[in-house]
Design goal:
By secondary structure, the chain is α/β, with parallel strands linked by helices. 32% of the residues lie in helices and 25% in strands. The strands form 2 sheets. The chain has an 8-stranded mixed β-sheet, with helices on both faces. α1 packs parallel to α6. It binds 5-O-phosphono-beta-D-ribofuranosylamine. It holds the Pfam family Formyl_trans_N.
């Protein structure tokens, strides 16, 4: 009799929008050798296309609609309860456009990742592509970080750069950055599932040693 295969880490993805990063993760985790499994997709917006993508992939979905809650704390408590029902090993924020409370973040310390469209620590917050163009930067990119209580401020695991062209618009830049996002997020989620990255007391640990700077994909 064959032994059952070892259980792989359970991934829960939270999204708010079109879910292109979710799709990249769905595609990656479907590869036979991927060391993790998406077990559920949560969303704060009924009707978001991310939910459609999840349904197409036969994934369990849930919606916790933030407009139905009187405060951030109540929303986060409801979201937390829903997530805990699935008992994930990793929570992946993939375009999840809500600021999370400290209690929520603490519940998943070292087990929650976020993707942010800038080379952090530059340009935390919104409208990063527009702000990069206004500043005249020649380089832009994407960061994936552990989520801590500081907004877009957790230790950065990996980054990918894109070159900013003279004629780039916020839209063209967003497209270039997203292409890199779709490559980088599956790589980092794989590292997590393989046990290669951890959040240590001093920051990100990779293969058991602290990293001095984020891992980088070269400029395209
Ligand atoms: C991405 O650009 C991500 O960096 C940002 O929100 C966007 C989500 O896009 N946090 P999608 O829903 O994955 O298409």
């Amino acid at each position: 009799m064959k032994a059952d295969p070892a259980p792989v880490p359970k991934i829960l993805v939270l999204a708010s929008g079109s879910g292109t990063n979710l799709q990249a993760l769905i595609d990656a985790t479907r590869e036979r050798d991927f060391p993790g499994e998406i077990i559920a997709v949560g969303c704060n917006k009924p009707g978001a296309f991310a939910l459609e993508r999840a349904a197409q992939a036969n994934l369990t979905t849930f919606v916790v609609d933030h407009t139905k809650y009187g405060s951030r704390e109540e929303f986060d408590a409801a979201l937390l309860a829903e997530i805990l029902r699935h008992n994930p090993d990793l929570v992946v924020l993939a375009g999840f456009m809500r600021i999370l409370t400290s209690d929520f973040v603490r519940a998943f310390r070292g087990r929650m990742l976020n993707i942010h469209p800038s080379l952090l620590p530059a340009y935390t917050g919104l409208n990063t592509h527009q702000r990069v163009l206004e500043a005249g930067d020649r380089t832009h990119g994407v960061s994936i970080h552990f989520v801590t209580e500081e907004l877009d401020g957790g230790p950065v695991i990996a980054q990918a750069e894109v070159a900013v062209a003279e004629d780039d618009t916020p839209e063209s830049l967003a497209e270039k950055v997203q292409q890199q996002e779709h490559v980088l997020y599956p790589i980092v989620v794989r590292w997590f599932c393989e046990g290669r990255i951890q959040l240590g007391t001093e920051g990100v640990m990779f293969d058991g040693a602290p990293i001095e700077r984020p891992m980088r994909l070269p400029a395209n």
